[in-house]
Amino acid sequence: MLVSDEHKSEAGSRQGRGRGRPRNAEVDRAVLAAAVDLLAEHGFGQLTVEAVASRAGVGRPTVYRRWPTKEDLAVHALIHSVPPLTAPDTGDAVGDLCELAVGFVTELSNSPLGSVVLGVHAECGRRPELGNPLREHYLQPRDAVITDLVERGRREGAIRPDIPADTVRDLVFGPLIYRWLITGEPVDRATAELLVSTARRAVAPGER
C-alpha cells in the first residue's frame, strides 16, 4: 500500500510541483521507523538504503529523494525517534536541569532505542560525514535547551558565574553519559540522582 500511495504522491508532486505540494508524511514515518529498526538490529555499519526501503515497503528512489545519504537518514531517524529535550520550569533552574538530565539519560539508557543512539554516536569519530550532521541537527538543539537552563540558573543566582555553560552541562550530564556509554553500568534513577546532586554542589555559588 505504501508503494502505490507513494507513487501516486510522487506523480502528483511532479505534476503540481509549482504548487509546492507536500510529500507523503506516512512514507516519511515508515522509512524512519524502518531505519531505526535496522540500526537496532545491525548497527550503522550494516545499514543500507536498500534494506531500509525494503523494510518500509518503498522504492530506493523514494528514500534518496528525502535523504541523499545513509548518514542523513540515520541522523533524521534519531531526530524522529528520540524525544527532544523539553526544559521544565518550576522556578528552580538548577533543579530543572538536574531533573532533565536524570529523566533523559535513565529513560534512554533503559530503552531499546538506547542501543541505536550508542551505535550512531560510536561511528561519529570515524565518519565526519555522520558526525557533522549529527552535531548540527541532533546535538545542537539539545545543547541550546541546556544552555537556556544554565543561563536561567545564573539569573536566579544558583550557578557560579565563572563556570561556562558548556562546563556546567558536562558536569551535570557527563557522569551519567560516562556510566551509560563507557562503563555499561546500569543508570537507575537513584544512582543518577546521586551523581547529579554531586554536580549540583560543584556549580553552586560559594563552592570552589
UniProtKB/TrEMBL annotation:
Region Disordered, annotated ranges: 1-24
Its name, as the record gives it, is ORFE
Gene Ontology molecular function, alphabetical: DNA-binding transcription factor activity; transcription cis-regulatory region binding
Tell me which InterPro entries the record gives.
DNA-bd_HTH_TetR-type_CS, Homeodomain-like_sf, HTH-type_TetR-like_transc_reg, HTH_TetR, Tet_transcr_reg_TetR-rel_C_sf, TetR_C
UniProt domain HTH tetR-type: residue ranges: 25-85
Highest taxon of the lineage: Bacteria
Key words, A-Z: DNA-binding, Transcription, Transcription regulation
Identify the DNA-binding region of this protein by residue numbers: 48-67
The family database entries (Pfam families) matched by this protein are listed as:
TetR_C_11, TetR_N
- Keyword Chaperone in annotation: no
Q: Which organism is it from?
A: Saccharopolyspora erythraea (Streptomyces erythraeus)
**Where along the chain is composition biased (Basic and acidic residues)?**
1-11
